[in-house]
Amino acid sequence: MPAVHNIPYGIQQPAVSSQIAQLEEFLGVKLFHRRPFALTGDGEKLYRFAQPFFSNLDKIATELQGGHARRIRIGAATIVLREHLPELFQNVQKRFFGLKLSLREGSPAELEEMLQRDEIDLAVTVVEKKTAPGIHALALLELPPVLLVPKNSAVKSADELWQRDTIDEPLICFPPGEPLSRNFQARLNQLGVDWFPSIEAGSVDLIETYVASGLGIGVSAAIPKKTFSPRVRILPLNDFPPVVIGALWRGRKTPLLETFLEELKRRAEQMR
């Protein structure tokens, strides 16, 4: 049912179809023809009755909340929540007095699931070209991938590794399903290089920590303004695809969500 994609409340097609069927059974009338879709006369009558109420829900909610919706639930990686969100939150607070903020950490896959379950309103995470139905995406920033090697490593460039018959150093990276790891392995395959993870870590901070401890070589991203440990060196990964950081949300944009998106775009522009 294509109409489900326009519902902003996180309801999936089976639930909508079931509720409509129950409503038709309760009323004892047919409300619409399935193929092709068209409202019946009774369906038109019910629509005209309900439409004014639902079209004014956002307006009355805003009035009841003192003029603005004042709560937002945001999910992101730890580094985003720690390094970037505090200043951004302060800027939004100037326009939304009494703003309440709920924070959740998670991987890209976890954050998209939180959106689907209506546990968060906005995710700031790695985005890919295709998102799940009903989820909107805004690309903000491209981050080139890099290798992190221990400070005392003899490796001076990534190309040195690709010339070897085998790479003995353990590989430290995100789980295989994460975009950064998936893109990295896809490019290695194009180069004819076999190098598979020995340690999987759930954040860039963990990857850096394990590399600094001398436990292997890590795959990370060149994050603007991030200061890496003095115990690691950064090696560029030329011709490897970047990861795209962006914002994900569902349904219509509220004034509060729109303001957060504008602040995210502004901050991304400053970081480029």
Task: Walk me through this protein's architecture.
This protein is an alpha/beta fold and 272 residues long. The protein has 3 domains: 54 residues, Arc Repressor Mutant, subunit A; 104 residues, D-Maltodextrin-Binding Protein, domain 2 (3-Layer(aba) Sandwich); 97 residues, Periplasmic binding protein-like II (D-Maltodextrin-Binding Protein, domain 2). It contains 10 helices and 12 strands. The strands form 3 sheets. It has a 5-stranded mixed beta sheet, sandwiched between helices. The protein has a 5-stranded mixed beta sheet with strand order 9-8-10-7-11. It has a two-stranded antiparallel ribbon with strand order 1-2. The longest helix has 17 residues. The two termini are 41 Å apart.
Brief digest:
With 272 residues, the chain is α/β, with parallel strands linked by helices.
The CATH architecture classification of the largest domain is: 3-Layer(aba) Sandwich
Report the total helices.
Answer: 10
Structural class: alpha/beta
The value of Rg in angstroms is 24 Å
- Biggest sheet overview: 5 strands, mixed
CATH fold-level label of the largest domain: D-Maltodextrin-Binding Protein, domain 2
Q: Round the mean pLDDT to the nearest integer and report it.
A: 86
What is the number of independent domains?
3
Order of helices and strands: HEEHHEHHEHEEEHEHEHEEEH
CATH class (first level) name of the largest domain: Alpha Beta
Strand order of the largest sheet: 4-3-5-12-6
Distance between the termini: 41 Å
Shape label: elongated
**Poorly predicted parts:** none
CATH superfamily label of the largest domain? Periplasmic binding protein-like II
Number of beta-strand segments? 12
Q: How large is the share of residues in beta strands? A: 15-25%
Helix amount, in percent? Answer: 25-40%
